[in-house]
Amino acid sequence: MNVRLLSWNIWMGKYLPEIVDLLRKEHPDIIAFQEVIQDQGGKNNTAETIAKKLGYHWEFAPVTSFTHEGRTVDWGEAILSRYDIDTSKVLELSIDPRHVGLLANIRIGNQTLHVISTHLTHTHQSASVHQEEEALSLVRQTPKDRTIIMGDFNALPESKTIGIMNDSLTLADSANQPTWCVYPDGCPTCYPGAVKDRLDYIFTTRDLTVSNYRVIPSDGSDHLPIAATVFPVR
Questions:
Q1: SS3 for 20-65, per residue?
Q2: Distances (CA, A) of 94 to 18, 91, 104, 202
Q3: What is the 8-class DSSP label of residue 197?
Q4: Is the pLDDT of residue 234 over 70?
Q5: Does residue 233 come out as left (phi exceeding 0), alpha (psi in the -120 to 50 range) or beta?
Q6: Which domains does the chain have, with CATH numbers?
Q7: pLDDT in tens, 163-199
Q8: Which of 15, 18, 151, 160 has its Cα between 20 and 30 A from that of 36?
Q9: What would the pLDDT profile of 125-166 be if each residue is shown by its tens digit?
């Protein structure tokens, strides 16, 4: 069975209608989101809103809290799936600042596919020992087979961070098509002037094959969504 994947830093859902429209058109089977928010207490979760509109199961991992548009929100990662999510857990990658991976164990037929959504520390595309340690922690905690890692790594293709990932996993696409930055206020400090930097990636364990990798045009976030198909899943 082929499984369609999509990963997207949705920038706290600033352009939610555009996000929903694109997902409805693309119809992915499994989605990894970064920068999902909810009100403290769990209400108004961006991933839940999208999941209910489009018919997905969903899991959310809060990472940190801050004030956004006059209210305190939790900010974190989410996974949406058209297949049942048996279990999920949070992989702690770093403490200060805290970053995590959300691992969902997704049942497809009589097999389990392990899917991780993650978002590493933003370093303005500069080398960072802290970020490299997050990548090492992620690799150590990754299941050894039938695993997909998707997310915003905040690291350029030539960085040591991505080198750490490549040493243990397979990169879905090596063409290094840029995924960031659509809007100048994505980061005024390091805005490259257009969509020029690749920060978003899909990795798999060696037993999986990935094809049809794409960067999808969109104005739904400061990041562009990325998609691919993984197979075979039997």
A1: HHHHHHHCCCEEEEEEEEEECCCCCCHHHHHHHHHCCEEEEEEEEE
A2: 32, 9, 19, 21
A3: B
A4: no
A5: beta
A6: 3-231 (3.60.10.10)
A7: 999 999 999 998 999 999 999 999 999 999 999 999 9
A8: 160
A9: 999 999 999 999 999 999 999 999 999 999 999 999 999 999
Q: Identify the H or E element spanning 88.
A: strand 85-95
Under 8 Å CB-to-CB from 190, ≥6 apart: which residues?
Answer: 124, 125
In this model, does residue 1 exceed pLDDT 90?
no
Tokens 């996000």 locate to 19
Beta bridge mates, 31: 6, 80
Q: Are the C-beta atoms of residues 107 and 82 closer than 8 Å to each other?
A: no
At 233 the pLDDT is 57
CA distance 168 to 165: 6
**How open is the CA angle 196-153-231, to the nearest 5 degrees?**
95
Q: What pLDDT is attached to residue 232?
A: 66
Two tokens at 73?
A: 């929100």
Asked whether the beta carbons of 111 and 117 are under 8 A apart, the reply is no
The two three-digit tokens of residue 16, written as one number:
């939610």
- pTM for the structure as a whole: 0.97
Using alpha carbons, list the distances in angstroms from residue 65 to 28, 76, 93, 179: 29, 9, 17, 26
